[in-house]
Amino acid sequence: MKEESDTSTESVPSNNGVAPLKIFINYRKSDTGIAAAALYQALEPRFGKENVFLDVVTLEPGTRWLDEIKKHGTRAGAFLVMIGPRWAEIMSQRSRRRHVEPTEDFVRVEIELALRRNSPVRVIPILVDDAVMPPPLEIPQSLRPLLDLQAIMHLRGDTLKEDLGAIADHLELVAADLAREQAAPPVPKPEGDSRPQPPPAPRRPAPVGGPDELHYEEVAKLLGEEGALVTFLGPGVNTSDRVEAVEGKAQALPDSEELATYLAEKFDFPSEPADLAQVAQYVVLQRGPSDLYRMLKQILGADLPPSPVHRFLADLPGKLRELELSKPHQLIVTTNYDDALERAFVEAGEKYDLAVYMASGDHKGKFVHIPFGQEPLSPVPILVPQKYVDFPIDDMLELERTVIVKIHGAVDRAPGMSPWQENYVITENDFIDYLSEEPIGSILPTQILNKLRYSHFLFLGYTMRDWNLRVFVHRVWGSQLPGTSWAIQEEPDQLEKQFWKDLRVDLFGVPLMDYLEQLVAHLALLARRPAQL
Q1: For the segment 152-181, what is each residue's pLDDT rounded down to a tens digit?
Q2: Dist. CA 49–CA 18, nearest whole Å
């Protein structure tokens, strides 16, 4: 960008005792460094060198530069945010790197300081060259107030002289406005909040064994406002009367008990099946792994519709966006092998990334990442989980899109459609290997592990028979979950209640869809509630 300006050389003096306008230029060197220098050269003679802050010019050698930046930024009358074509992209990359390199992004810190509540600073975005304001979901929640600002300026190479003059003229108006504010007597603030408040929502009695209104309000807030809820999806979200997928008669995918029953009947298991892992181990020992994998692919790869729970989770991001709640995307962890959830997201037109544990093949014992839009034949193996930061999860643990984590592998649904074969943690030996692997931090990618360690959890479709969940919980958290979490299970028995209690999980005995429908209703109530000051 050519650097030129048409400005006077006299500094603007103090006006009737009112302090001159202080200007802070926030920029990223790799994206808008030249534009920032040109802007400084245009503003410095017009507003005075002592009143325009640009780090490479203003900071003296030996200065504690972060303290100085914070001091100048918060004292500035005008805070200019230089937004280049790669502004959001670079910020996202820096944010993800903080999972493995705890270094501060000072450009972001400066903006957050300027945007803080009750800040006297006038924040003015300046779009450089062909940059545009990014959509809300591409920037951190803390920076989204930028999108609501009306005073947006432009600085383009082909109209540089005119744009620099327009910015300087606008800053003169800001200076005059601030001078009037400083000269005006203070207006006393009314005591309390005089705004009319909506009547409280009526509270309904909680069903027997079910959650009350306060529970739904808490979960709705964790989900829609704080983004601190992770859903665990178990085999109980698949519903069918009997597994007959091989003959094409089933109307839904099986849960783990139905799958165990079907395999036991098909391969003449000598007693009543205790659990799926035991039956699968028997099939491998008696018939070999190829027969087990062939049957699993026939059953789990059947073209059966996603369940109502799958469709609910796939529709949820759109509902949250419609309600204008700030955290529309979730981390969803599943022990299921089928791809019904992914198909539900595709049908809903929702973006998602996929992380799949590899139980076999060249990358056995590792996860692979399939970013949204990437061909499934080219997954990214995560060879060093502690350094991998390409999931859409930033340093504040906000998700740019949904991430689905399949912790026990996945079905190879059709030839050429997925990058794995015979990829299941399903037999007793598979689970023994899973437990005896390296520490979870050397297997589970750091971004996902961080999200799990700083979240609350909602378990859908699990029973005590699904002991594979306990294997994963033990690997990540030990004997108990941190914080408050919940499980939804219709008609649990006494052993189920004790199991969840031992994990420090509150159990509610209500149908899954009844619970989820109530949750959506409370999300709508949350969206209509006035913002807290």
Answers
A1: 899 998 899 999 999 999 999 888 887 777
A2: 18
Measured distance CA(432)–CA(245) in Å, rounded: 29
The residue type of 220 is A
Number of domains in the chain: 2
Two structure tokens written together for 530: 């006035």
Cα→Cα distances 222→215, 309, 516, Å: 11, 19, 14
User: Is residue 223 situated within a structural domain?
Assistant: yes
Structure confidence at residue 147 (pLDDT): 84
Domain carrying residue 69: 23-183
- Mean pLDDT within 229-244: 73
314-344 pLDDT, tens per residue? 999 999 988 888 788 999 999 888 888 999 9
Note whether residue 274 is domain-resident. no
Q: What are phi and psi of 512, to 5 degrees?
A: -55, -50
**How far apart are alpha carbons 262 and 296 in whole angstroms?**
10
Beta 380-381 vs 367-370: how paired, if at all? Answer: antiparallel
Residue 338 main-chain phi, psi, to 5 deg? -75, 175
Does 83 map to a domain? yes
Same domain, 332 and 444: yes
Q: SS3 of 80, please?
A: strand
**Least confident residue range of 17-31, 390-404, 416-430:** 416-430
Strand 78-83 to 122-128 pairing: parallel
Arithmetic mean of pLDDT over the chain:
79
The per-residue pLDDT for range 412-437, each reduced to its tens digit, is 655 554 566 778 888 878 777 776 66
Task: With beta carbons less than 8 A apart as the criterion, state whether 333 and 344 touch.
Answer: no
